[in-house]
Amino acid sequence: MLIDLIKCHGSNNDFLLIDETDRNYKFDDFKRRDLALALCDRESSLGADGILFIRPSRVADAQYRIFNSDGTEASMCGNGLRCAGRYVCEKLGVDEAVIETMKANLKVKKHEAIFSDIPTYQVEISPVTFELKDLPLKLDQETLIQEKIPQLSEELTFTALAVPNPHLTTVVSKEQLESDLQTELSEKVNNPNDLFPDGVNVSFIRLLEKGSIFVKTYERGVGYTNACGTAMSASTLVTCLMGENELDQPINVYNNGGMVQCAVHKEGETYTIDLIGNATFVYAAQIDVNFTKEGILAEILEQEEFNEDTLYSRLQEHAKKYLSQF
Ligand SMILES: N[C@H](CCC[C@H](N)C(=O)O)C(=O)O
């Protein structure tokens, strides 16, 4: 089967984007899962943190589904939505669109470059909730905001929220960030456990200076990634709740893949978060995929480089230089 795809990334959180519209790929969710497992494997195939499937929508300009590299589907992916948003806007010849996601129809729009002339998009991260049942996190309480979870750690305090995928965040010191704490904790809650039956994205946050934070995330269904858009959005909201950052201000969120901006808005009791950052297209390819009993074999038939990564690497250099002072 011939499949056309685009390799893309948001803050070097990389994806394969496959547009199913006007194609008779006839994927079902088993095939989408198997494609993610096979094509995301960096040892044996193209390699990526996940696959973004673009599909027709009756309620928006397009539908977008995200499958992690372990084959599980997530309700939301912020870095991926910027890439999907750019793809749909450019396909429709518009600067803004609405994308149907699992839990909400979200606005995406072209944004002025976040750094030099890097293609930049702004996406809406929503719905946001602190109800533990929405992660789920099995504790005998409604919410967990700046509290300990003794079963996980005696030293860290956590905030749990869903945006709408599940996030467990904690503000840490440089030493704690550089220790094994995050790996031990993340592996515990992303293997069979009594707290997070569906797993959870685990983020360690460092406060840098007013208006700037650093976030490192161990992603459910992937492991460590260079950046996690929903985690950076959730982490920014947590630092606003702590009074460390202001609402309605674009906060610089640094990560191992570069930098994005997040602005938290509150209307009544409802939070939404704007996530602004690169939507970089690396290459377009046509692959020949064979679904065999032994698994999926994929061969790249054609590949066209977009040469946008050289542009993006300037932002990554800037971010590394900025972070070296902390
Ligand atoms: N691993 C996440 C989905 C991808 C989120 C991340 N890549 C982002 O940019 O938000 C989950 O299972 O909830």
UniProtKB/TrEMBL annotation:
GO biological process: lysine biosynthetic process via diaminopimelate
InterPro entries: DAP_epimerase_AS, DAP_epimerase_DapF
Localization per Swiss-Prot or TrEMBL: Cytoplasm
Keyword Amino-acid biosynthesis belongs to the record: yes
Enzyme class: isomerase
GO cellular component: cytosol
Family: Belongs to the diaminopimelate epimerase family.
Role played: Catalyzes the stereoinversion of LL-2,6-diaminopimelate (L,L-DAP) to meso-diaminopimelate (meso-DAP), a precursor of L-lysine and an essential component of the bacterial peptidoglycan.
Self-association and partners: Homodimer.
NCBIfam families registered for this protein in UniProt: DapF
Protein's name in the database: Diaminopimelate epimerase
Species, as recorded: Mesobacillus boroniphilus
